[in-house]
Every structure is written in C-alpha cells, then in structure tokens.
C-alpha cells in the first residue's frame, strides 16, 4: 500500500491537489482512500442523526457500523486518541492500493508540500520530514524553492507535472 501526504497551511490548495491526484489514480483503476485531518477544533457532523446507529451511540456504543450490500459507514465519537497508523491498518484490511493523507503534516510519510509564500516554504521545509515535492503559488516562492530544494518543484496552478512525477516515483511502471 502506497501512503502519500498532501500538506501545507490552510487554503494552500491541499484538497484540490488531493482530488486531482485521486481522479488520476481512479482513471487507472487504483483502489484509493483518504485520511483528512480535521484540525479546526469543531466536532464532525453526525451523518446518521436520529437513525438506529446514532441511537446505538447515544445508548453507549463507542462506535457503530452500518452495512449494506453496496457499502458501509462507520461513525464514532471515541474520546480516546486513535493514531494515524491504526487508520492505515484498517485500509490495509480493505486492500487499498494508495492512501492519500491530507494534513497530519508532522507525520513521517512521503509528502508534497503546498506553499503560498516563500516564508511558508522556508519554515516548513526545515520543520517537516520526508518532503519529496513542493507545489508553490507564486513565482517568487518557486524561484526560492528551486534554488534550495532537491525534490520535485512545480506550480500549484499546473498540477499535471506533479501528477506525472507522482506516477513515475510511486506507481509501478507500465501503469
């Protein structure tokens, strides 16, 4: 299973890049999954409010799983920390080919860093590990990154080059 992160500050374009990479992988029939860090300090909306699974959790279940012939939905209000690695174990059970992690920037998986300003890249390139690619929003940032970074560097407004690089680096030849 390939695990790759898309990281950067808020409004850097992480969700756009994630969606474009997912579409490219799906077009080649890869089984994909995502993990999104929801770091806004708010609770997630309850997708099954007032349904049986919601009632199960209200009665004390830590989690509830609804299963149909075409899919399933897990909802949980677990107050215990559940590390990223455990979610990846679940995806292994599901035989996922590629997991894209949006956020969790301090995790040590290979990642692309999206930056809006030169200061962002200077700070994050020293703080983060395993940065393999950088997508920048301004030519000023791009010039600085190309001078000081050894991995892939390209414009966040043209992700085709990044997607091609990702396939060359992480996906088996012939795909």
From TrEMBL:
Q: Which Pfam families match?
A: MobB
Q: Where is the Molybdopterin-guanine dinucleotide biosynthesis protein B (MobB) domain?
A: 3-134
Which InterPro entries does the UniProt entry name for this protein? MGD_biosynthesis_adapter, MobB_dom, P-loop_NTPase
Q: Supply the SUPFAM superfamilies for this chain.
A: P-loop containing nucleoside triphosphate hydrolases
Per the UniProt entry, what are the Gene Ontology biological process annotations, in alphabetical order?
Mo-molybdopterin cofactor biosynthetic process
In terms of domain of life, where is this protein from? Bacteria
- GO MF entry, a single one: GTP binding
PANTHER family recorded: MOLYBDOPTERIN-GUANINE DINUCLEOTIDE BIOSYNTHESIS ADAPTER PROTEIN, MOLYBDOPTERIN-GUANINE DINUCLEOTIDE BIOSYNTHESIS ADAPTER PROTEIN-RELATED
Could you tell me what this protein is called? Molybdopterin-guanine dinucleotide biosynthesis protein B
The top of its lineage is: Bacteria, Bacillati, Bacillota, Bacilli, Bacillales
